[in-house]
Amino acid sequence: MAQQVTMNAQLSCSFGTAPSTLVVLPTNRVLSSDLPAANIMDHVPILNIPPFAMCTSLANPTVAAATAAAQGVLTPMPCIPVTPAPWAPGVPTVLIGTFPALDSTSKCMCAWAGVISIVTPGQITEAIP
Hints:
By secondary structure, this protein is mainly beta. Helices cover 7% and strands 25% of the residues. Strand 1 (10-13) and strand 2 (20-21) form a beta hairpin. It starts with 9 loop residues before the first strand and ends in a 9-residue tail after the last strand.
């Protein structure tokens, strides 16, 4: 069963070299296990989704340029997430604020081809049906 995602959830990117931690602002005034509960709109780069250390995706122009300069040897560059779309699918039957709740099975796509996943939801007591 999926769990409600909260502040401090651990995130992983398929092209990142280190995990990151979700930041959820308390603007929706909904808590889960005494932590701000996330919804699908908590996808803003840097604000909600901090960098994943270094990026290894050749779709990222900085990685592609550095790799070309290194004569084809993959050269990771600092990660700057680009997440223009909300998390999907979320839980449309549970609203946090006015948007679907974010559950532990949702994914967020980075414009540089990375898939951002939730490793740990930030809390373990609140399940979403």
